[in-house]
Amino acid sequence: MTRGSCPQAQQAQGRSVDVAAMAQLFGYVDVTDTGFIVAVLSIAFNPLFWNVVARWEHKTRVFSRVFGSAHAACYCLGAVILLLNCVRSHCFTEAMKSQPKLEGWDCHWTYYSGLAISAVGTLFVISSFLALGFTGTFLGDYFGILMEAKVTSFPFSVLDNPMYWGSTAIYLGWSLMHASPAGLLLTAVVAISYTIAMLYEGPFTEEIYRQKQKGVKNK
User: Fold this and answer.
1) Helix (H) / strand (E) containing 174
2) Which of 101, 95, 154, 158 is nearest to 129 (CA)?
């Protein structure tokens, strides 16, 4: 009588296949390449920069004093963040171009799948910006520019932090369009960087609004 494989053996085999596939995929990536390293550093730097600057502003109000108002300071930070994001995207693209493509993925199906994912990501980013406005998007609450109520309309009705996940989806789609294993690895770095940023930003922002509500009740 022939016996079927036990579930544990099947799971172990599945994991070994996954590991082998990942090893083959990232065997295309030269992580010591200067362009790749620069892209990783630019990805990691951006959320670190805006969190440090915004928290410093929240603690000292130094930028509001320098620029004459909280709104002016927030607009300036937003402009710098946009510029840094452009630099990050450029470094990401150049890192992809300098590394080999995955030949099996260099086809119409992968290209249009990536295009669709990028389109969804763009939708989340743009709709998040429209729902939050400029100051809501670029850490206005750290400057004392608080929203009247929590935004619950689309895309926040679908998922939390849609701006971050939308941006990650854009990079994922861009990587698929270029059949780039390096791009996929860099996309993972983007996702990790944003996840760490969310762990710090979420509780801190909630505390800002708790203090606001406490101040209103004490009046």
Assistant:
1) helix 162-177
2) 154
Is 134:77 a contact under the CB 8 Å cutoff? no
Helix (H, G, I), strand (E, B) or coil at 145: coil
Say which residues have a Cβ less than 8 Å from residue 117's Cβ, sequence separation at least 6: 169, 170, 172, 173, 176
Task: Give me the numbers of helices (H) and strands (E) for the chain, helices first please.
Answer: 7, 0
Q: Are 139 and 174 in contact (CB under 8 A)?
A: no
Per-residue pLDDT of the chain (219 residues; tens, 9 = 90+): 434 445 454 454 445 545 665 666 667 889 999 999 999 999 999 999 999 999 999 999 999 999 999 999 999 999 999 999 999 999 999 999 999 998 888 899 999 999 999 999 999 999 999 999 999 999 999 999 998 888 889 999 999 999 999 999 999 999 999 999 999 999 999 999 999 999 999 888 888 888 877 765 555
